[in-house]
Design goal:
By secondary structure, the protein is α+β, with helices and mostly antiparallel strands. The chain contains two helices and four strands, in the order E-E-H-H-E-E.
Length: 83
């Protein structure tokens, strides 16, 4: 976990599912949504997706401290030369 004045950067928790659902709905309503893979938006699908995110150590949630809300995430992909 990392912390700044306004953010907590941490791994996902299963209870983040409602914030993940908001991100998914926002992404699917974006004008460029058709340029990327579709995301699920139903409660059950999002709960499953969030459970997966919580088990992946390369995916980091950015939580806005003032709202105690996940506002985005990043996937850290390492680069291994020669592989």
């Amino acid at each position: 976990m990392f912390e700044t004045a306004r953010l907590i950067i941490r791994h996902f928790k299963p209870e983040d599912w409602e914030n993940v659902q908001e991100l998914a709905i926002s992404k699917e309503n974006d004008e460029f949504a058709d340029c990327d893979d579709r995301w699920p938006t139903s409660d059950d699908d999002i709960k499953g997706m969030t459970q997966y995110l919580a088990t992946d150590n390369d995916i980091w949630a950015f939580e806005l401290k003032s709202e105690k809300k996940v506002i985005c995430f990043v996937n850290y992909n390492s680069f291994n030369e020669g592989i």
